[in-house]
Amino acid sequence: MGRTDRKPAVVSAEGQFNENEILFRTKEKKMKQIDLRSDTITLPTTAMRRAMADAEVGDDVFGEDSTVNRLEAMAAERLGKEAALFVVSGTMGNLVSVLTHCGRGDEMLLGDRSHTFVYEQGGSAGLGGIHPRTIPNQPDGTLDLDDLEEAIRPDNIHFPRTRLIVLENTHNRCSGSPLPSEYMRRVGTFARRHGVKLHVDGARIFNAAAALACEASELVAEADSVTFCLSKGLAAPVGSVVCGTRDFIAEARRARKAVGGGMRQAGVIAAAGIVAMTEMVDRLADDHVNARRFAAGLSDIRGLSVDPAIVRTNIVYIDILREGLTSQDLAQRLAGKGVLLLPTASRQLRAVTHHPIAGKDVDGAVDQIRQAMAE
Ligand SMILES: Cc1ncc(COP(=O)(O)O)c(C=O)c1O
Fold this sequence. Notes:
By secondary structure, this protein is α/β, with parallel strands linked by helices. It has helices spanning about 20-30, 45-55, 65-80, 90-100, 115-120, 125-130, 145-150, 180-195, 205-210, 215-220, 245-260, 265-280, 285-300, 325-335, 360-375, and strands spanning about 35, 85, 105-110, 130-135, 160-170, 195-200, 225-230, 240-245, 305, 315-320, 340, 340-345, 350.
């Protein structure tokens, strides 16, 4: 059986395109790669591996893993919430949060470009019977308050009950935009006025805080719950954390168990999360500098459209203007040159800067893209 025959039939986690194809071809050539597909490809640091090897562990379903308990306490404090829950992924964090806030037949309002709506398999509907109602995301990732006002259901036997608003900060599909604290507060106040809860998908909340020069806790001060990821720009191998009130987290812990997310000696991975939170947050600003440098480098390449002015964090979207060139074609051409980008639509690619991509790497990637577009 050939190597490609054994390739699992997976599709990109964030789109309908198969980037494995690209990875395999590039690996065969054994060239130095600049992999900008996602910040999820970051590898655990040496300090993380040491911490994992040395971690004190116990049975976390019994609440006896002291490393998990330490990570949860640290996360709750950093996000300004009473309590926290370690989960395996951002998707699980969002799912258990939504399952905790809403019951079957309840409605949640969320952006039409949000990760929870687009990329989480509709899990809240499939597993929780929760009705998703989308609101158009503005280009900066926000939801217009007038649109939200319009969408809140009056008490009427014909309607589902509006229970929850979900915001995403930074907003992945909206150019990685950070949503400012003033906006976050306004939505929180709005939610309270209408008796609905606010959940924040803060997979990259520390990127938002770095871009806005504020504390992550300020961004979620009015939120009832927040999920953030340790395994993206913070480079831990596994894990996300949900934060909220003590009561909310107690219920979310039940939901986590129901979806099979109760872990045992999870301190082995939580230890890497502790290193992620203590050592990897401050360097996120470097990723933002590199993303802007990358976007600026691409901005004069004919046949592509990139706007450096909208790059505020670590995500850059590249639109293809050249007739007849698809994102799959361009991604494969670039893979042959050692640059990996993620096709996110038929004529769009995404690049995400992350540890340990440096300025010279993004300059190298720009050169290769320029060459590929000149061929
Ligand atoms: C904004 C956002 N939320 C949630 C997730 C889901 O995280 P995970 O891949 O850990 O399930 C992602 C993943 O890329 C994301 O970008």
